[in-house]
Design goal:
mainly beta; 5 helices; about 15% helix; elongated; three-stranded antiparallel beta sheet; about 375 residues; 17 strands; 14-stranded antiparallel beta sheet
């Protein structure tokens, strides 16, 4: 029996990690003195100091892995995890543009146990556009190679140290995005996400957020008389209204809390290869979910650092089946970065883009 049938959509390491983060942060120190002399405050409403005229670089580690859990009334749950417990992310921020990429090298904590969990190949890119009220993000990720985290439920003789059940040919490919609007002009989303602003006073506000994703789960193993394979094409969209509040302490330290419940739709086309024939069907599912966020950090004029904890849950019942998909995920991020004067070419190109966008909005306030 192929247990994937119900899934669709169904201290050397520490030293290396610290070395990588230190290098990513210390290199910009060559520009620190110049920055300190040239920074000028641009304060809006006494609540926000804009820092987006300076290029910021940011290094972080996090555990935001793409996992899947399926609950069936007739079998134990299926918990699929990639062998990438920890990621390193590197990004830049300038004006309204943010870009990043992430990698999962074997020397990071929790990675690299190939013998017992198999090999996972993973790559992701992302970009954000954050204006005064509107914000937009897009991203791409690809993951190949999963293991059954609860192998003991399917093999009672399994014990710690034994190899997990592995699915080296299971591949996830996803394109995702999010769009939102913040109602309070005194609340800076940039200060919380890209650190291109500094929040100077405590405040909070409601946020409307929509997320959407097209992703493919594909078991690329060869079908055989004793093994079936599946592929699913999925489109997911949701809409939520949440609230965020930022406590600012002495202008440089902050603590942030947020909660967003949401509802959404998931449409899936599932194709099962029975070796002698392929069968396809579609599903339309209602999604219920929530997201919460806790963050604490220091946001100085030239150096910033902090950490965040995100928790969320999502569930839906697969149409026409007794299968119930659910997941609760808790992720963390630890980051640090510097701001310094931008390169001349970058400044000129972004100035041109900003001017063109503002020229196409006559009679309106600037969006930046």
């Amino acid at each position: 029996m192929n247990i994937l049938t119900n899934i669709f959509p169904s201290d050397t390491s520490v030293l290396r990690l610290l070395t990588m983060l230190v290098l990513a942060i210390v290199i910009p120190l060559t520009s620190y003195a110049q920055l300190k002399d040239s920074l000028k405050e641009e304060v809006e409403n006494g609540y926000i100091e804009r820092m987006d005229n300076y290029l910021g670089i940011k290094a972080s580690i996090n555990n935001a892995t793409e996992t899947f859990t399926v609950i069936s009334p007739s079998a134990p749950p299926i918990e699929l995890y990639p062998n990438t417990a920890t990621y390193a992310r590197f990004g830049f921020n300038y004006r309204f543009i943010s870009g990043s990429f992430r990698i999962a090298p074997d020397f990071l904590p929790g990675n690299g146990d190939i013998e017992s969990k198999g090999k996972t190949k993973e790559f992701a890119l992302g970009m954000e556009l954050i204006f005064r009220h509107f914000f937009q993000s897009v991203g791409y990720s690809c993951v190949r190679g999963y293991f059954l985290n609860n192998t003991k439920d399917y093999n009672t003789s399994w014990k710690t140290g034994d190899p997990y059940v592995q699915f080296p040919n299971l591949k996830y490919t996803g394109f995702e995005g999010s769009s939102g609007y913040s109602f309070n002009p005194r609340l800076s989303l940039r200060a919380l996400s890209t650190q291109t602003d500094r929040q100077l006073k405590s405040t909070g506000g409601f946020i409307v957020l929509s997320k959407y994703r097209f992703y493919i789960m594909n078991d690329k193993s060869e079908a055989s008389p004793t093994q079936t394979t599946q592929r699913s094409n999925n489109f997911e969209i949701n809409l939520g209204i949440g609230y965020r509040y930022v406590f600012v302490i002495r202008k440089y330290f902050y603590l942030s809390l947020g909660l967003t419940p949401y509802m959404g739709y998931l449409g899936s086309k599932i194709t099962t290869d029975f070796y002698t024939a392929k069968v396809s069907n579609t599903q339309n599912n209602l999604i219920i979910g929530w997201e919460s966020r806790f963050a604490i950090g220091y946001n100085g004029r030239s150096f910033f650092t902090g950490c965040s904890l995100n928790a969320g849950g999502e569930s839906y019942h697969q149409q026409y089946t007794p299968v119930y998909n659910q997941g609760t995920q808790i992720t963390y991020q630890i980051f640090a970065g510097f701001r310094f004067n931008p390169f001349r070419l970058l400044k000129e190109q972004v100035d041109f883009m900003q001017q063109q966008m503002n020229n196409h909005m006559p009679g309106q306030k600037k969006v930046f």
